[in-house]
Amino acid sequence: MQQGYVATSLRGITAKAGVNLAAVNYHFGCKEALIREVFERRLGPLNAARIAHLDKLEAAARGRPLGIEQIIEAIVAPVLHVSKEPRPRGTISLQLLGRAFSEPAETLREILPAQYREVVIRFKQALTRALPDMPDQELIWRMHFMFGTLSYTMTGNDALKLIATCNREDGDDAVAIMRRLIPFLAAGLRAPLPALQIKRSLPGRRAA
Amino acid sequence: MQQGYVATSLRGITAKAGVNLAAVNYHFGCKEALIREVFERRLGPLNAARIAHLDKLEAAARGRPLGIEQIIEAIVAPVLHVSKEPRPRGTISLQLLGRAFSEPAETLREILPAQYREVVIRFKQALTRALPDMPDQELIWRMHFMFGTLSYTMTGNDALKLIATCNREDGDDAVAIMRRLIPFLAAGLRAPLPALQIKRSLPGRRAA
DNA sequence: CGATGATTCAAACGTTCGTTTGAATCATCT
DNA sequence: AGATGATTCAAACGAACGTTTGAATCATCG
After folding, report:
1. Does the pLDDT at position A158 exceed 70?
2. Are A78 and A56 in contact, with CB atoms under 8 Å apart?
3. Could B160 and A140 be called an inter-chain contact, meaning their C-beta atoms sit closer than 8 Å?
4. Which string of DSSP letters, residue by residue, matches B151-192?
5. Are A51 and A124 in contact (CB under 8 A)?
6. pLDDT tens for residues B121-146?
7. Which end of chain B has fewer CB atoms surrounding its CB within 10 Å, N or C?
8. SS3 readout for A87-127
């Protein structure tokens, strides 16, 4: 996944794994089924942990809305757990999951919605309760922005890293990154609503 | 670019363009040089427009710091100009530029830093002046988050779109999306600093 | 017009890919 | 030990890729 789905050959995988080339087709059927299993194995526990985290928060809140930071942390904290796996598996797993969203391969486009469905529904509910004045459309877009930032950050594909004037110190510490990410996202979610959009030449019928 | 660099064959490109397969190698030398030219042709004007926009703002400000929203708009507005090109070129160009950051192909990793260098430097300067109390490290990360959100949004690879409960109305209108994006990013940039990170078991020498 | 250089074209080259095959090897059980 | 089913392996297959080639076509100009 450091090179994307199509550019990663089964020959490379099997060689690195120390197994025979034909093993993939014997055990998984085809390359597509292999990557599907990889994602289910990585994404399944991750999203399950997110939902479990949210369950615990909501149980503790006893019907009261959760705080924005709490909700975001329920999404982010399980990622940190993955990142702590022994090198380089942790880092690469993050890249895998982060790139999944922008991976053009058609295969992934079928896997991801199924894997993320419950997570998105649950977090949208929680955020709707935490931000009762936010229009639904606006919230959905802000969730979209939030997922984008998170997925992009996980890829580690740092646009600024390669530029000389922007040298960082603690680039590798996932915990530090996430600690910076949460306030950023929370403020974004809480941002004042954008200026009233003018539906040009469309008469009336504007949402309250 | 709807399918990524490696998955896009020269045969597909030349067939769609109505030219001979060998034309690519004749005129560009190789596939890599072709994509390089595509990016320079798309990214060059876009980033030039961003810098020009910033120039104009700074000239008008006469030495006073710019507003956060102004700075963000200087990054975002030129994107809208691209999106307005006739269908489907506008949409696809955005996907191309958005995916560039997460594209695993090694080739792009050499092109992008050169193309974005000046933009990043200039905007970091402007943001530093607009947010004088923000530590340098923090600002760099927030710029990172900002670029991530923008690039992810441009890909149109909507993680939420495919989920039934999250149907949107105005998904295609790039202007509306950007109008939502700016307050989100501005609030993120202005967010209160994250809690003091505890450098565990490392004695003293903490930045002011 | 006819020569010259640039461009286009169909065909082929050498690689690499995912997958298949059939024999060899291993594990398990009577 | 010997039979049986699961797994491994080296080898090959057909397809698709980027690139090269050499002839055909085009444009330009003395």
Report:
1. no
2. no
3. yes
4. HHHHHT--TTTTSTT---SSTT-HHHHHHHHHHHHHHHHHPP
5. no
6. 999 999 999 999 999 989 999 999 99
7. C
8. CCHHHHHHHHHHHHCCCCCHHHHHHHHHHHHHHHHHHHHHH
Residue A82 has pLDDT above 60, yes or no: yes
Tokens found for residue B201: 């078991």
Q: Are B79 and A122 in contact (CB under 8 A)?
A: no
Is some CB atom of chain A closer than 8 A to the CB atom of B81?
no
Q: Which residues are within 8 A (CB) of A98 and not within 5 positions of it... i.e. 6 or more apart?
A: A150, A151, A152, A153, A154, A155, A156, A157, B102
Q: Which residue has the higher pLDDT, A105 or A191?
A: A191
Q: Are B186 and A182 in contact (CB under 8 A)?
A: no
Looking at the complex, does the CB of residue B179 fall below 8 Å from at least one CB of chain A?
A: yes
The nucleotide lying nearest A31 (C-alpha to C1') is C18
- For the CA of A81 and the C1' of C22, the distance in angstroms is 45
Residue A198 DSSP one-character state:
-
The tokens of A184 are what?
């950023």
In this complex, do B149 and A147 lie within 8 Å of one another by their Cβ atoms? no
* Best residue of A145, A153, A206 to probe chain B, by most B CBs closer than 10 Å: A145
Q: Residue B102 and residue A99: Cα distance in Å, rounded?
A: 7
- The answer to whether the CB atoms of A103 and B4 lie below 8 A apart is yes
Query: At residue A204, does pLDDT exceed 90?
Result: no
At residue B167, φ and ψ (nearest 5 deg) are -85, 135
Can you tell me the distance from the alpha carbon of A27 to that of A192, in angstroms, rounded to the nearest whole number? 53
Q: How far apart are the C-alpha atoms of A135 and A162, rounded to whole Å? A: 39
Instruction: Give chain B's end-to-end CA distance (angstroms, integer).
Output: 46
Q: With an 8 Å Cβ cutoff, is A135 touching chain B?
A: no
User: What does the pLDDT read at residue B169?
Assistant: 52
Q: Which of residues 1-40 of A touch strand C (CB under 7 A)?
A: 8-12, 21-22, 24-25, 30-32
**B196 in A contact zone (CB under 8 Å):** no
Asked whether residue A79 carries a pLDDT value surpassing 60, the answer given is: yes
